[in-house]
């Protein structure tokens, strides 16, 4: 843990509320929250408990960021095709593929 | 690929098996695959050494598992969001859990607890650069926080607290180590945070008091 992390942690301790929503409650409203955010609509007081949970729960925050990125690409009509995304990764050399096939076939 | 409204998705996926349902399932699976590949791409730094074929295989598995989740939970979709946004949540949840599992697969809670005293070294700062009085103040607050965690929290709260907050491990990973769901772990941590805050406030220590000692 570095100092920035420690400071954030301390802020979270003092920001702890009595009626925080839990992970299941957050997951149940996350898609609506993301769509409204992308559309630029104001969720009003409904947004506060969602933001409070996202600040306290690193796993839910990670999933929110991923969902937001995907939903935003779709809203812009720019969700990449499978091949476009896969092109970012290295292809397995043919020799390795052949070796894998040989091992699988010999078992 | 057909452009479907929320009602179209729900109706087609819920109806008896047939050509229309098979087509909708194929379209949904394609959307899930594209979505999970975006998520994986955002985290590609964690997958160095993975070939394109291995990534494709992983994404196909995650999309297939999410499709089963979605079909099992169709009756919980209330139509307040786009159907696809609601559906992407399942595949992203699966992908995030899998990446976290790989991130922490070689770390046991016990081993990390042994390393706990070292966790605060970076928080103290460089001993040669920090004013000795300020350093003493930082040591005092860190010792106090540790004492509260050691004496005021239950064993499970303490293990959860150290794993998530001090060691920066994922909620899923710590929950698995403690035999809990993520939701149960969140509630455990919430109670621990409330107790810690109450103990600090009982000593009349505000957030600003402690933070002031850790500013440069």
Task: Walk me through the structure.
- The complex is a heterodimer of chains A (107) and B (216).
- Chain A has 107 residues and is mainly alpha-helical.
- Chain A has six helices and no strands.
- Chain A has helices at residues 3-15, 23-39, 47-56, 58-75, 82-86, 94-106.
- In chain A, helix 2 packs across helix 3 (47-56).
- The longest helix of chain A has 18 residues, at 58-75.
- Chain A is extended and about 60 Å long.
- The radius of gyration of chain B is 23 Å and the shape is elongated.
- In chain B, helix 2 packs across helix 3.
- Chain B has 216 residues and is mostly helical.
- The N and C termini of chain B lie far apart (57 Å).
- Chain B has two domains: 6-103, Rna Polymerase Sigma Factor, Chain: A (Orthogonal Bundle), CATH 1.10.1740; 124-213, Orthogonal Bundle (Arc Repressor Mutant, subunit A), CATH 1.10.10.10.
- The chains are: A mainly alpha (107), B mainly alpha (216).
Provide key terms for this protein.
heterodimer; A: 107 residues; mainly alpha; 6 helices; B: 216 residues; Rna Polymerase Sigma Factor, Chain: A; Arc Repressor Mutant, subunit A; 2 domains; 73% helix; elongated
Topology summary:
The complex is a heterodimer of chains A (107) and B (216).
Chain A: H1 3-15, H2 23-39, H3 47-56, H4 58-75, H5 82-86, H6 94-106
Helix pairs in contact in A: 2-3, 2-4, 3-4
Chain B: H1 6-14, H2 19-42, H3 52-72, H4 83-103, H5 109-114, H6 116-119, H7 121-124, H8 132-152, H9 155-166, H10 171-178, H11 182-202, H12 207-213
Helix pairs in contact in B: 1-2, 2-3, 2-4, 3-4, 8-11, 9-10, 9-11, 10-11
